[in-house]
Structures are given as C-alpha cells and as structure tokens.
Amino acid sequence: MDIKVNGHMHRIDADPDTPLLYVLRDELALNAAKYGCGLGQCGACTVLVDGAAVLSCVTPVMLIEGRSITTLEGLGGPDNPSPIQRAFIAEQAAQCGYCIPGMVMRAQALLARNVDAGEADIRRALQPNLCRCGTHMRIIKAVKRAADLMRANSAKGAI
Ligand code: FES
Ligand code: FES
C-alpha cells in the first residue's frame, strides 16, 4: 500500500486494518503523534488527513490510501517552525508535552479553515483533545497567538 505523508509517498507493509498511528510511528519513524488511550478518547494521536483533524489510533490505514496525511513533523521543525509551532513555544504551552502534538494539529486544522476563530471557536474545536497537565489556558493563548501570526503572514502575502 502507498500512502502520502508530509508530501512524500511511502510504500508500507502493514495489514489494512492497522491503525494509522502505528504505521506512522513504527514504520515511518514519525513519532510526534502520540499513543494516549488508543480508543479515540484523548486526541494525543491527532494528525491531519486532507486537512481535517483525525484520530490516527482508530483510523485503519486502508481508509487513508490516496489521501494526504500531515503530521507535526510536516508543519516544520526546530530550524523552520511554522507559525503555530512558534506560538506554542512562545506561550510555553507545554508542561509534560505529551498532548501538544495533537493539540497543535487540531488547532492547525481549525485555523486553516478559519483564521479568525475566536476563543469560543478554539475551545469548541479543541474539546476532543485532553491535557492531563491542565495547561489549557496557555494552549488557548498559543492558538490565539498563532492566529495573529497567520493573519500577519497572510497580510504580507507570505502564507
Ligand atoms: S491515542 Fe488516539 S485518541 Fe487517544
Ligand atoms: S502538557 Fe502534559 S498532557 Fe498536556
């Protein structure tokens, strides 16, 4: 089976019903998406499929063949962080950090479809994602800051 992740095609050797999360972590060494509950209840495993936030622990890999997957690694890295990554760093949103990749990806999906999302929209969008450290207020501030950065980039024509 061939899958497209972060703009690159990969040939994978996995049973069709293998959760996408296992393929990302175990076959492609993309370890940003985390295993939290494995039951679709915590959001730690959130990635984007065609731009929409998806819980990769309960998504069989056969369902995403031919679609475009983005993980946190695909947004940017230490040398070229994306606006949302810069915002999470600036607001020091992470405590243990385990939930943060999933939070970032779900927030990215929200801001990509509505960069003017307000606090109520952010809270609603992030509801499926849990943070056991309780850094929710800093996470919300980070998403607001990311929206500001994205709007500024858009105004400069550097989307
Ligand atoms: S690990 Fe996927 S929702 Fe918890
Ligand atoms: S920062 Fe620890 S679970 Fe969210």
Characterise the protein shown here.
The protein is of the alpha+beta class. The protein contains six helices and five strands. Strands 2-1-5-3-4 form a five-stranded mixed β-sheet. Helix 3 packs across helix 6 (136-156) and helix 4 crosses helix 6 (136-156). The longest helix has 21 residues, at 136-156. One FE2/S2 (inorganic) cluster binds at residues 94-100, 131-133, 135.
Assembly state (oligomeric): single chain
Q: What distance separates the N and C termini?
A: 33 Å
- Which geometry do the CA atoms define? globular
Sequence stretches where pLDDT stays below 50 over 5 or more residues: none
- What pattern of helices and strands is seen along the backbone? EEHEEEHHHHH
Strand adjacency order, main sheet: 2-1-5-3-4
Kindly estimate the percentage of residues that lie in beta strands according to DSSP: 5-15%
Number of helices: 6
Indicate the mean pLDDT: 96
Provide the helix percentage.
25-40%
Main sheet summary: 5 strands, mixed
Q: Which structural class matches the secondary elements?
A: alpha+beta
Rg on CA atoms, Å = 15 Å
Q: Number of DSSP strands?
A: 5
Write a compact overview of the structure shown.
The chain has 159 residues and is of the alpha+beta class. The protein has helices at 20-27, 72-75, 83-90, 100-113, 119-125, 136-156, and strands at 2-5, 8-11, 46-49, 52-55, 68-70. The longest helix has 21 residues, at 136-156.
Identify the notable features of this structure and list them briefly.
159 residues; 5-stranded mixed beta sheet; alpha+beta; binds FE2/S2 (inorganic) cluster; 6 helices; 12% strand
